[in-house]
Amino acid sequence: MEKSGNKDQKVATGKISRRTLLGGVIAAAVLPVQSLFADEKLAENSILPEIADDPTKTVGPGPSPVGKRSPFEQSVRKPSDISSRTPLQDLHSTITPADLHFERHHAGIPTIDPAKHELLIHGLVENPMKFTLADIKRFPSVTRTCFIECAGNFRTGKAEMTPQDILGLTSQSEWTGVMLSTIFNEVGISDKAKWFLAEGSDAAIMTRTIPIAKAWDDAMIVYAQNGEAIRPEQGYPMRLLLPGFEGNMNIKWLRRIELSEEPYMTREETSKYTYPVKDKIRMFSFELDARSIITYPSYPQKVNKGWVEIRGIAWSGRGKVEKVEVSTDAGKTWQLANLQEPVLSKAHTYFRYLWDWKGEATEILSRVTDETGYLQPTLAQLAEARGVNLGGYHMNPITAWQIKNDGTVLFKPETIK
Amino acid sequence: MNKKTVLILACPVMLLLMSLKTAFMPMKAQLPLTDSLKRPAKFGFGRPATAQEIAAWDIDVRPDGKGLPAGQGDVKKGRVLYAQKCAMCHGVDGIEKPGVKLPGNALVGDTSATSKPKTIGNYWPYATTLFDYMRRAMPYNMPGSLSNDEVYSITAYLLNANKIIKADVVLDAKNLYKVVMPAKKLFIMDDRKGGPEIK
Predict the structure, then answer these.
(1) In what helix (H) or strand (E) does residue B17 lie, and over which residues does it extend?
(2) Contact across the interface for A122 and B42, Cβ inside 8 Å
(3) What is the CATH code for A118-273?
(4) A79 three-state secondary structure
(5) Residue A186's closest chain B neighbor by CA?
(6) In whole angstroms, what is the distance from residue A299 CA to residue A168 CA?
(7) What are the angstrom distances between the C-alpha of A187 and each of A256, A261, A346, B58, B162?
(8) What burial class does residue A183 get, using C-beta atoms within 10 Å of its C-beta: 0-12 exposed, 13-18 middle, 19+ buried?
(9) Fewer CB within 10 Å, N- or C-terminus of chain B?
(10) Using an 8 Å Cβ cutoff, are B132 and A267 in contact?
(11) Dihedral through CA A223, CA A228, CA A234, CA A237, nearest 10?
């Protein structure tokens, strides 16, 4: 992952243009203010153009082939060795910009030539077939907006944590591709097939088993994300999309599907993505349970006395968000939040709640109810149901933010042991 | 042309139009036919996959042994291979020492359910998964480089190190899937279907 990052940088410097340079210099001028520069002197000594006090008195740069963010916007993912987290606290609605979509992969991002990529479908089928990307694109297409969330999307432990730190492994895109049922109809599926194996073309040759019902319901093979080709980190040139199912099952760089009467019990569905429930280990948890989080205000933001619009996202892998409730008194009372329409099934849903903050120290929380009647639990409720050795998978507890007297916002890390 | 002639000429035309209209009446009751409403039984996109193409990619191994290839391996050979190809990430003996984090997962531990960390002995429910995963994804720095014999041998070594098989067992397609893993009895399928219950 880091190797390819370095390579990208080299390519970028090799092709640097005057306009890129200008953008870079402006960014450099902004960066020291945010203390992102390790060497402050380096920035001070650079020859930086002044940012005009009055932008109406200077003609700006002209049109460009590919746009970029304002240099004043510094929203970035947070990478670790194995994943990179979406800055949820920076987003104003539910679509995640493709370059900020979270990443999780198990052996790096493969570089795949779309002209050579093929998808093989075999096993319990009438006609084993291979499809090129061009073949897949010829089938009737469908566009769907939904979230993808990693099943291991829960971090806690200290007060200085952002939504990105706590649960930044969830993102939302508008995906375009073909319904998997259309492709399955093309190859002809045997009545004996109850499961299918999906396999990626990465160095992990990632595999997961998926129940066949999902294929006939809403599974897709997608090649576009927010209108453009899928990003390499998201499975370029094609990935499986299983709305509401744990992220790992949405196999990226999809190259093979095998129909079977039995599950394959791959490493990622046995030794990983399983979790203790009392004295047992639960496996094959596909749907992600309903969850919500307040993304504003959140750490490290501060609030001022007066009207504060509490904002956040709520979602469920089992369908639509029915309602979101917000508490501004540490969970004693709950009020209904407004949901941004349209509320889509298995999709991040934006919620808002107007709060007149008088300056008292308190805690603010949100909880979602989905259309199945499931109410987002507290960590204590999850521990009561599953035992105290919860593990990190399929965790969806209510998240609380502490509001201090001076308007400081801190995460409230909870412990169960 | 006088009015009468016009009328006479017009009548057959009107009759013709009326009969045409009658003939097309049933069509009007239907939805307009457009391409987007037609779905062929098959689109005819894609091409048949050859047996060779399937064999080249079909490397999965199921718990019932389907997919296990020819070849064999033993604990002795596996110990040597482990030291050469696995120990750098998973530790000399696959055991995580207190306070020392391994680059890879710990693989060997005792087989009691509550012990940590999760290892093959206390957490892997199927022996076939070991073969499947190692063949496709290991070693991390050279994925897919192990021969089938090598995978059988390393599997044998790891199962023996976890006290699951004896040191003299030779593993192959006929017996690997029969190895009963200690953790198998712990696994339960998720049976939640939504609704208010916290489970």
Answers:
(1) helix B3-29
(2) no
(3) 3.90.420.10
(4) strand
(5) B42
(6) 14
(7) 13, 17, 28, 17, 43
(8) buried
(9) N
(10) yes
(11) 40
CB-CB contact of A400 with A155 (8 Å): no
> Per-residue pLDDT tens for B36-65?
667 899 999 999 999 999 999 999 999 999
- Alpha-carbon torsion (A72, A75, A78, A84), positive or negative: negative
- The minimum CA-CA distance between A126 and chain B, rounded to whole Å, is 11
Domain positions in chain B are 60-186
Q: Which ranges in chain A are annotated with CATH 3.90.420.10?
A: 118-273
Confidence of residue A24 (pLDDT cuts 50, 70, 90): very low
Residue A51: the pLDDT is 78
End-to-end CA distance of chain B: 91
Cα(B110)–Cα(B164) distance, integer angstroms: 10
B133·A266 Cβ contact <8 A: yes
| DSSP annotation string for A54-68 | -GGGS------SS--
The residue of B35, B37, B39, B43 whose CB has the most chain A CBs within 10 angstroms, and thus the best one to mutate to test that interface, is: B43
In angstroms, the CA A365 to CA B187 distance is: 34
Note the pLDDT tens digit of each residue in A212-239. 999 999 999 999 999 999 999 999 999 9
Query: Nearest-CA distance from B13 to chain A in Å?
Result: 44
Cis ω before A63 (30° cut-off from 0):
no
What interface predicted TM-score (ipTM) does this complex get? 0.86
Nearest to B60 among A197, A203, A283 (CB): A197
Instruction: Report the CATH architecture of A291-411.
Output: Sandwich (2.60)
Say how many CB pairs under 8 Å bridge A and B.
147
Q: Which of residues 136-195 of A touch B (CB under 8 A)?
A: 136, 138-140, 185-186
Q: At B112, is the pLDDT very low, low, confident or very high (cuts 50, 70, 90)?
A: low
The owner of tokens 């995963």 is B133
Residue pointed to by tokens 């080249």:
B56
Distance CA(B186)–CA(B24), nearest Å, equals: 68
Which of B42, B60, B140 is nearest residue A258 as measured by Cβ atoms? B60
- Contact call for A265 and B188, based on CB within 8 A: no
Q: Indicate whether B3 pLDDT > 60.
A: no
- The residue of chain A nearest to residue B120, with distances taken between CA atoms, is A271
CB contact under 8 A, B49 and A128: yes
Tokens of A180: 């998997």
Handedness of CA B42, B48, B51, B54 (dihedral sign): negative
Cite the DSSP H helix spans in A212-262. 212-217
Name every chain B residue with its beta carbon within 8 A of the beta carbon of A384. 198
Q: From 3.30.1360.30, 3.40.50.2300, 3.20.20.70, 1.10.760.10, which CATH number describes the B60-186 domain? A: 1.10.760.10
Nearest-neighbour CA in chain B from A173: distance (Å): 24
- Secondary structure element (H or E) that encloses residue A256, with its range: strand A254-260
pLDDT for A28 beyond 60: no
Are the CB atoms for A290 and A244 separated by under 8 Å?
no
* pLDDT computed for residue A30 by the predictor: 39
